[in-house]
Amino acid sequence: MSGTPERQAQEERLRAVWQNPTGWRYWTSVNNTQVGLWYGGAAFAFMLFAGVLALIMRAQLAFPDNDLISADLYNQAFTLHGTVMMFLFAVPIFEAIAIFLLPPMLGARELPFPRLGAFGFWSFLLGGVFVCGSIFFNAAPSSGWFMYPPLATDEELSGIGADIWLLGLSFIEVASIAAAVEIIVGIMKCRAPGMRINLMPLFAWYLLIVAGMILFAFPPLIAGDLLFELQRMFDWPFFDAARGGDPLLWQHLFWIFGHPEVYIIFLPAIALMAMIVPTFAQRPIVGYSWIVLAAVGTGFLSFGLWVHHMFTTGLPQISLAFFSAASEAVAIPTGVQIFVFIATMLAGRVIFSTPMLFGTGGIAIFVIGGLTGVMVALAPFDWQAHDSYFVVAHLHYVLIGGMLFPVIAGLYYYYPLIDAQHLSDRLGRIAFWLMFVGFNVAFFPMHLAGLRGMPRRVFTYPSETGWDWLNLISSIGAYIFAAGLLVVIFDVLRPKHRHTGGELNPWNAGTLEWISEPKENWGVRSIPRITSRYPLWEQPTLLRDVAEGRGYLADAPEGQREGLVTSVLDAEPVQVLRVGGTSGVTIVSAVTLGAVFVALTFKWWLVTAVAAIASLCAVLYWLWTGTNVIPEAEEKDVGHGLMLPLHASGSASVGWWAMFITMVGDATAFASLIFGYFFYWTIHADFTAGQAGPGMAWPLIAAALFGGAWAATLIARTLNAGERKAPMRACLGVSALLALAASAAALAGPWQHGMDPASHVYPAIVWLLVLWVVAHAAVGVVMHLYCLARSFAGRLSALYDMDLRNSALYWHFVLIQAVLTFLVIGLFPEAG
Amino acid sequence: MAVAARPPPGIQPAGLACLTLAGCSGNQSALDAAGQEAASIAQLFWVMTTGGAIVWLLVVALLLYAARSRSHSEAAASRLILWGGAVLPSAVVVGLLAYALWLMPALRPFGAAAASGLRIEVTGSQYWWRVVYRSPDGVTVTSANEIRLPVGQRVELSLASNDVIHSFWIPSLGGKMDMIPGRTNRLSLQATKPGTYRGPCAEYCGTSHALMALQAVALPPEAFDRWLAAQAKPSPAVAASGAELFRRHGCGACHAIAGTEAKGVLGPDLSHFGSRLTLAAGILPNTTDNIERFIADPDRIKPGVKMPAFGMLPREDIRVLASWLRRLE
Amino acid sequence: MRFIPKPIETLWTLFTAPVVWAAHFLFCYGIAAVYCAKQDQIGISFAAVRIGIAGATVVALVLIAASAWLAWRQWGFGAHDPPHDDPTRHDRLLFQGFATLLLSGLCFVAVIMVALPAWFVTECVR
Predict the structure, then answer these.
(1) Could you tell me if residue C4 is inside a domain?
(2) A71 touches chain B (CB under 8 A)
């Protein structure tokens, strides 16, 4: 291996490639460490904001018949409290932790799409500020965080707050899906060589499952938001019973998202515990496979629970019973996880540090929440407990014990990775006891208040109900709890004496993230080969080898940010991945897209259109300049004599995976709309209400034309593989024209039959399905034009055909959705 | 037993006097069961709570022991996961599920109400309840914000809403059921003890959701029948001096009073307003003073209420109206 | 032709049992929900629905048992103990087998639990 001067030169080059911009341009950084920290900081700030709202509410409820704040302000406060905690803290904080931790933990330099990560962050920040800021203009949403129609669809009763909620959060949901794509591809394809799936850190296992859950959980909510906003903006009566709609459809769509969401929040926090417990038990985890069982099992079962939020809506008892059953079943994998930690502690020698204190304290709290969860999952008990303070207590035991305490444990544990300093052990213990005691004092009495008939979301209560002293105790506890959190914040923000001098791995942990040097931006100095679950314990030379550049990709001679792509199961290196560096285009894209949502809220149509075009241009510029860049050579030496290609396309490329995953989410949203169609069919004897349908002819013609557009795309792909440029371009053109014709035919059906979407839910859902497909076709046409432009610019060839292959993949999904849509709307009314 | 329409004594507000954890906790407690469903569910609750407490103590004890003990073998630890984490919880939740599933159909036996035949239709509005009694002999009585039901007989409630989602819940009698626009839900209740029980609206329904409640009065069957018969006729006091004011100020546009020309349906029916225990949907005691305050400025008492303020009327008119309404028993 | 497939080297076998659980769950929920909503228009009795659920349950349990058996075989019929953390293809396969076996066990119990309602609830009441 080379001597010191050469190593220094390598380090200089690497440092230059990965360094952050300075001055205001710092904010254009896309590095995972920066984005992760910003993300986490913003999420924490939102959490504090929502916490202050909670303290105001507790002050109001401390005494009966209190008039500290008005009913309306209280209603805005609890709506924002729930919304912010769920959408702006609980989910984003895990995205932040994942973006920050995953690359070093997997021995990667970066996640595969750093700019997408930065874009997600900026979208989240803008959407979050928009939603939170509304309360200062007395315009915050006030219909509760699950926004039940008709209360939330009524313009008079909910005002602009509901639009702010819908559009602001839709924007953030898009960011969550972006994060999910990033995390799935990162974990599956970007692990260090040798990190087989049986050696993967448990954190990565959990996050893989969680990201998968996001992919299936968020799209139903996005579909619901779409229905909701169409009703609010254009009076399409999806939830209006008078015109055939049904408020319950929203509840279904919301909770299909809402219950998995609880586990999307809980699993990453448990994932942190799965990293912390082995370190302080000083041994590998006992029951690695059991954790995988639990994570996968929970991931699946959590999708069969949603109706337990609807036990009192009058659904048939048999339906309630199915969901009771699944809700009980999910307790099993949850129990397994707790026992894995107990078993690991039993088999090891536990050092009871501050992170362990928060971790085990969190478990003690969470178990109570889990047990009350088992109780409310039984429909009969839920008939009493539902929407009462019992449920308020239950959900806070679950979320604070199962999420906030582990996250604070993670903060104490991982803080040295942020700036090479420790948080104070003494302050940590003080904070823990304040929080632990305060929490239980605040929330335990709520169980009793609920059983004594106190409904949730009340801004006041009469004194004769016997709730007053329970509420007073709760309020006192809430302030003790807040004091504990303040101690944590003080500990993080206080200036720290630099006496430890930035030692690596201060807890003597075994996992790879501890090789990350807080002072360096390159992630890892060189990429090691992994042969163990706990490489820092079991690979004694690893730390030195990495630091001395004896791993892969120890240099950056071409001035590019590079990482390795490895195979899914055995993590054999297959490709060098060049990722995007510092760029302002992510901010521009996020700001313009944000402007679209803000303008829609206020119904400024012209601004909406301008912002949408600007946003499209920004994204196209981003794609054109930053993706599928043709490398200077086909292969490069990554070290140890290994030559790897610099490019891949089709299913071997990370871009193809990202497209596939995104489209799975898209298909889930589509499936939710189809569910809506059939839902309306089930609730009505004649769901068309005697109205004309789109007929059979036009839908079938549209389906056939979409088939043609799809086929032409595939032919273009084949022609391109044979370097036959002219016919390929012609095929792309034909496909685009067919797509336009198909869209026209699709619209002709409902148009010609005079279907008025505001008159009844049947024409509304038909129009929506048609418009959904047409919008997809429009995106598909843009893709064709983009490929054509790439071809004319000489950036599309038989070898470098990623753009075309991804378009073709996209068109597979469009075809499925188009055919299903037109068969359903064209044929089903005839059959039914 | 001759119990009048007044609530039996002893069901007074529990308040601070009552510091024990269970039982004895006001007239709105799910644990103080006065109905069949509430009793079964309270029993289910106690079974689960006892079991849950034992589980929690075991887990925490194990956690503390694991944190302090010397290392055990990995094999022993793995066995703990299998038996403690998987097998035991599976057995417990399957057992619990079977218990609840067995309980469920028995709790709400629809169709059994045919025995007594009384049906009560309750319709939620922001922020009050319309109540219509339909007895099997064809008597229909309209009232608001209070339901009365005969002890020992199963009553079927049919629940609807005409604006947003509300939820009907009388914790002492049984679980809740939502009132959803466009749907009619059914609930079946059987009171077991005479008394007055309070029920809040349990689904958030807008600004004054917290100020929407009702009273449920369980009466012995004979007393109930007498009461219903009296309600079916106009109140004896209906012809008194307030009637003219009621007409002149246009109150009848929204409210109906049997025996007068007031037939409004937007607001609560006031035919026997004086016999109700509370005013403004369970919020204030039904006194003349409170009625006056409500007529003068309802939004102050109940933000967002649909009724306009009548503070511009002469004070004397309001007073006469209030005392007349109070006498409409 | 082999009747029993060779051990398949993919991540997706892990998800077999949960997917079966999900399909069974959706079937049970869907058929009951549609039946209860449309019972006036459908000529069959609720007993038929319950029999359908029972049939689906048997099929699901058989599929999960098959997945468990394949996983058990991949795990070497229990000849090797966890933790399966060697950096070899063999250990990786053992790990997959063991994890799949555990998941099949969970899903087996979960399918039975989801089928229980059809046993206890005998009418389409709300």
Answers:
(1) no
(2) yes
